[in-house]
Specification:
Elements lengths: L10 E4 L2 H7 L5 E6 L32 H18 E11 L4 H10 L3 E10 L15 E8 L10 H7 L8 E4 L9 E2 L2 E2 L7 H11 L5 E4 L6 H8 L3 E6 L2 H12 L8 H4 L13 H5 L8 E4 L6 E4 L5 E3 L2 E3 L1 H9 L5 H4 E5 L4 E4 L1 H16 L1
Parallel strand pairs: 1-10, 2-3, 2-9, 4-6, 9-10
Antiparallel strand pairs: 3-5, 4-5, 7-8, 11-12, 11-15, 12-13, 13-14, 15-16
Helix pairs in contact: 1-2, 2-3, 5-6
């Protein structure tokens, strides 16, 4: 029986996150996003130069008597999240310098395997009004998998596309939550650490597919649920503060996503596509014997295409991958580094462009 049938999908569950996590089926969640209390340890009010008080994080839920208490709390909720994650599941947790290093230690103690540390660089951070420290202009995200070496979802091509065709780096420059997106009550922030939807958009695009289940154990005002709904992921929120739950439910209800169409929302993974020999391009007259291919588009580094699908470069023959490795003296994918000349356009393009065009034609033939 599908374990997801038992899950309280697309709901906000009120209560203690550990108790609720312990009630959920084991190995039923695809991704956890956690924005836990930061334990800021503020001891006095903060004031701007114009004598207005800074709306800081001073709520009861962010108060812990000491580091030991915070560490024990962190171990409890991380252990509970680990139990509900699928073997292929991943966890994202965000924090500041106040807590992220302690969270990282707990993750490793519990045998999570850290995949990346992402730096969220804030375009518009709050200044350091006292002028006694650097302006704190970033937060850290740890991306970890439940079991080292297990397969996990990473939509590399989707993140590359979001970054204008360049490989997505581990520094994300995004503004803080502000303007109409920032929820307010009586003129003040409804939640002191509301995250921007753009940040969750990146995370869910990177680590989930449509239909996957995303869990947020510190749901707050529901940003995770809003973005999950927009991207057609299923979600579960856990929150203990009724005032936040009311705002989250209202906010998610007002979210009107585009109807689901796999053409718009599914990200093809080229690594899972059937293998296509380079020689197939020659057999279908997409390339011809004697054509030149250019390493990384450099016209001074050219190899010739042989009729049998091999390349010849400086007297050496081999596959597109072997010759590329010979040139760069490192592992590489020939489909990504060899470029051909499109004479009609007068421009160089990666040979992968021909491979994808051939696949489209073949898929159309198969569908017909």
């Amino acid at each position: 029986m599908d374990r997801q049938v038992e899950l309280p999908l697309n709901q906000v569950l009120e209560g203690d996150c550990v108790e609720i996590l312990d009630s959920l089926p084991a190995e039923s969640i695809d991704l956890v996003f956690a924005d836990p209390p930061y334990n800021l340890q503020l001891h006095q009010d903060l004031w701007r130069p114009n004598q207005t008080r800074v709306d800081a994080v001073d709520d009861d839920w962010d108060q812990f008597p000491n580091f030991s208490a915070y560490d024990a709390f962190t171990h409890r909720w991380l252990k509970a999240c680990r139990r509900v994650l699928k073997p292929s599941g991943t966890l994202w947790v965000i924090g500041t310098y106040h807590n992220i290093y302690r969270v990282g230690t707990a993750l490793q103690d519990l045998e999570f395997w850290i995949l990346n540390s992402i730096v969220w660089i804030k375009d518009n951070p709050m200044p350091n009004f006292r002028g006694v420290r650097f302006t704190n202009a970033h937060e850290n995200l740890i991306w970890a998998q439940k079991k080292r070496g297990a397969p996990y979802i990473f939509n590399y091509q989707a993140m590359k596309a979001l970054n204008d065709g360049l490989q997505m780096r581990s520094d994300w420059r995004l503004p803080i939550c502000n303007g109409p997106e920032r929820l307010r009550q009586n003129g003040e922030k409804a939640h002191p650490t509301q995250k921007p939807e753009a940040l969750l958009y990146y995370i869910l695009q990177a680590g989930t597919n449509p239909g996957d289940v995303v869990l947020d154990p510190f749901f707050g005002t529901g940003t995770t649920g809003v973005v999950a709904k927009r991207l057609h992921r299923r979600w579960i929120g856990i929150e203990r503060e009724p005032r936040y739950i009311s705002l989250a439910v209202q906010r998610i209800a007002q979210t009107d996503p585009v109807p689901y169409d796999p053409h718009y929302f599914d990200t093809p993974d080229r690594r899972k596509q059937p293998r296509l020999p380079f020689g197939r391009l020659l057999a279908n007259d997409l390339l011809r014997p004697g054509d030149r291919l250019y390493y990384r588009g450099d016209r001074s580094i050219a190899a010739q295409v042989m009729a049998d699908g091999a390349l010849e470069y400086n007297g050496r023959r081999g596959s597109i991958h072997q010759i590329a490795r010979h040139i760069c003296q490192a592992p590489c994918n020939g489909w990504e580094v060899w470029y051909y000349l499109d004479e009609a356009a007068g421009a160089l393009y990666p040979i992968d462009r021909l491979r994808q065009a051939y696949r489209l034609v073949e898929n159309d033939k198969f569908a017909g």
